[in-house]
Give the backbone structure.
Amino acid sequence: MGGGYRADCRAAPKGNDVTRNGNFFNLYNHDFVRIAVGVPSVRVADPAYNAEHTVALIREAAERKAVLALFPELGLSAYSCDDLFQQRALLDACLDAIAGVVEATAKLSIVSVVGAPLQIDHHLYNCAIVIHRGRILGVVPKTNLPNYREFYEPRQFASADAATRDEIDLAGIAAVPFGNNLIFQHEEQPLLTIHAEICEDLWVPISPSSYAALAGATVLLNLSASNITIGKADYRRSLVTSQSARCIAAYAYSAAGVGESTTDLAWDGHALIAENGNILAESERFKDRPQVVSAEIDLERLSQERMRQNTFGDTAQRELERVRRFRRISFSTELPRRGKMLLQRHYERFPYVPSDPATRDERCAEVFDIQVQGLATRLRSTGLERVVIGISGGIDSTHALLVCARAMDRLGSPRKNILAVTMPGFATSARTLEQARRLMKSLGCSTDEIDIRPSCMQMLKDIGHPYAEGKEVYDVTFENVQAGERTSHLFRLANLRGGLVVGTGDLSELALGWCTYGVGDHMSHYSVNASVPKTLIQHVIRWLAQTESLGRETSATLLEILATPISPELIPGTSEDGHPSHDTEATLGPYELHDFFLYYTLRFGYPPPKVAFLAYNAWRDKDAGEWPDISRDRRNQYDIATIKGHLHTFLYRFFQLSQFKRSCIPNAPKVGSGGSLSPRGDYRAPSDSEATAWLEQLKSIPDKD
């Protein structure tokens, strides 16, 4: 047993250790743990029966490879015993039941947390008993006792505040830690630090678990009885999710179910597991049978979030006196790190795009509104009435033009104030040029078409490029001359017409450095797409097309644009079906994977092995889960070798190659919590850093499934 508030270094295997042991595909090697919540059948005042059925669920949780199992408040006696709690026979039977659970689970690695009444120093306490491998790690008494409406617990029980000792003897075990200031930490996985509170403790303004989280607890448990009334289940969900969010923790909750007395109350057996504001698992309520629900907790996510959110640490500092009162009890058990154990937890293939259609539509609407509001505000502040934008017939410029159109509508200005310019070059396909023309016409903006080939040829001639001499040399200079000419024309048009150049580049391109620096698509007066990833842009366009909010003609063109391969169209050539042959994803890899990598690297700071493990869980099965209809109706799946190869591209380009471009990007509104790469908003990094550390960890990812 240890005491005080202290920091613990991570001890879990990582990097090459994971591969060396051959267990990359095991969730426990990526700082996940599986926990379970049980709702057993009970008989009122029959502890032997209740212990037997609790042990059965503990065994079921252990078979699921869970490291922790939580059970309801006073589950060994039943909650609804009322004044029977004052009968010695019942209390003695509860002691026998506790001893029985300890003995029956002695050979199991799982930590079990069960509820029972305990008489200590002439007081009766409503307690959580934490049991592990034949040892009682600690006993936590309930602090807040409700005495209103249907509750009158002070009639039988004393609060934890009445305790005069911090150790007790229980079930033949001496010096068991006792108190509401206990947290339990796994020695081999120190990120797994547990605290238990009981029912009403969650319903008060400041819960004991709030202080426990500040003291380092990452997994918060609530043994509850909680009878059911109309609307109460929704309120429980709200309490559990909000507490997990405020504490940046996992929160597991177990309410009493079948078998409790219905003399005056009813019980629904509500079990919940939440992580940082999101429900991961939930029981079926009103079931006439025992249940176990389980979920994996991402301990690293919780640790990373606490590290980033400096106000969490500031609060711990302010409450240091209270935090220091916590006693830390260490326990050791072998985690099931060997063998393949993938996640049951669902990870979206498109983390920026919700798979639920209703939520997805709401997300698209909000993204679009944020972008429109940002551009409209910038136009008001500059006093400019016009915008200038280059239109290629691809998705990024299409989306930016849609934002411009809606911004003009919001400002009450005519769409003729948008000067949309298409600038065909050496590689512009007939398909994209026609798409650009039709889109501009359908939106009713002012249009212009400038053939940039003459000015590009002049530039190539001036600098002595082989292409100007008739040689088919399509190098980066050849590409960037075209990108630069387009941007140069836009800025000079903006000068001439008194307008503001709207940028079209997106978050995915900035992450990979896939933009021409300076006088190129990197630069504009205001960039509406800079914090919107490619996969999300695709779906916002699809949403606008499906709603037909910009007209049927526009919607038809939008769907054609979505069906066109992503291309910068800087190298001549077209495929047999008229598509541009210069396919960006053939060079860089699929944006759907790069956006996945970006989200978990930027938002959470995960190391490459964990990013790859999550990608494998999300993308390994073509038929796993639901995903939005994003890009050309693809239904892809990726093996670990493919994921590893594309992750190498992402890591090198993101960490070593591209930061200098992000260090001076134009102003742009931050759109999502997934992050922005603006140095003024969300991400500050040196331009001359190395990718060595990330690429070294990449080696620990296996080359085959």
